[in-house]
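A note from the maintainers: we've had questions about how concatenated examples are separated. There is no special marker in the raw files; a new sequence line simply starts the next protein. For clarity in this README we add a label.
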Amino acid sequence: MVKRDKELQGDIDRVASLAEPVRRALYLYVGGQSEAVGRDQAAKAVDVSRRVAAFHLDRLVEAGLLEVSYRRLTGRTGPGAGRPSKLYRRSSRRIPLALSAREDPVAARILARAMESGESTESLERAALAWGREMGREARERAGPGAAPAEVMRQALDKLTEAGFDPRPEPDGRILLSRCPFEASKSDAAVRICHMNLALCRGLIEGLAAPQWSVRLEPAPGRCCTVFRSAAA
């Protein structure tokens, strides 16, 4: 059972990494090429900067979804030929779901399915916490060095939107999540999904390094049970 939990968590982490739209686009592009591709080529293909492409490509390598090789693209050899370029290709590992940019986040479906099948709560919450931290780090990366707290939070809200939560700032300073991408209300594992959402959002705050924000469960009809609160509110 322990081995199965570890394998499941590994699959969850890999699928969760593809919930990010740019990362998913890069994975699909690289996977569709007959040869390994460099950062510049991948960045141009999905219309992002080289820096952003490099960040996401290396995260895909860490997740085991891409493999790396090194080769000089100019064909030159010897002194003065320059350093070999870092190239990426799809790894031999296969993920258990087909991907489409028009689908709901694939991570949401696999996590909900795993919860309903009775898998380890601790394993799934750890995966959700890790996913949230990754989302928070990426939001801070997007905001840029020295960004104002408001811009950092705006990027965090964009990440929550991409994950399917549809965040909605309220006049009283709270941030409500208008939608549960895990569809807790339709699931037999609603309570476990709510706690997984809470773990994900706590991870987001940790990744943002924004201790002025906290999250707690405040169930209400028609929205996600997790609510963000600011210490200043």
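[label: protein 2]
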Amino acid sequence: MNAPVEFTTEKINNIKPFKSQLLKWIGNKQRMACEIISTFPNFNVYHEPFLGSGGVLGVLAPKKAYASDAFKPLMEIWECLHDDKNRLIEWYSARYELIEKLGKKEAYEKVLASYNKNPNGADFVYLSRACYGGVVRFRKEDGYMSTPCGVHNSISPASFSSRVNEWAERTNGTVFRHMGYEQAMLEAKAGDLIYCDPPYADSQAILYGAQKFSLPHLFEIIQDCKNRGVYVALSIDGSKYSGRKICNLPIPDDLFEQESFIDVGRSMLKRFQMDGQTLEEHVVADRLLLTY
């Protein structure tokens, strides 16, 4: 067992919920980010190598951070937020304007066809907000995005612009990089903190990047980080079917010092698969594993 870890007090007490989401994304941790952050120790630099929609990053708003993802169109969005936020607003606005010209579904299908012809962040930022439930789903054989148009109305360009400005301020100290998680985690130094939110091993084989993800390999990288004095917090499968199934994962003995379960609500992926049913019997809890 490691020596007791000194947990942050002043910083964590100042963390407040931040509900404005830049991207609409299944598995987003923003709603439970304060609970996750409350487990973080004092750290030097924050790292998030499975960035996705950056829910924990946005709430934490660290002074110095590195955030990355292997999915290039996604990182084009985050890099644009940092480098030229007005251009990011223009990307979304230009595609939103198609709704008045073509109709909601037709506009979505036009942007989706453009994306599938040439995957890019400009199309993807609109698709993430307009697709069904934020379920970013790709065909395994060719990467074709197949999620249909959502039943909701996409937020207006004015609302998106406001969110861009909020997120640009909250991530001002973050360096965004298109990078695989292995390289990103190996660059962390002793005293740094890594928060990992990889694809769920039990249920996300259809989602972006999940086909190539290996949980046992991630555990190997986490062990290396722990050996080097890097703190690692991992969100991964916990329980499904309102607690009736505890996900059985190949978690190595002695890798993690603490484990807890965090209620993340009803499964949006299951709702998508079951055509919008309310799914009271499909409440999901994440397992939060800590190396400290």
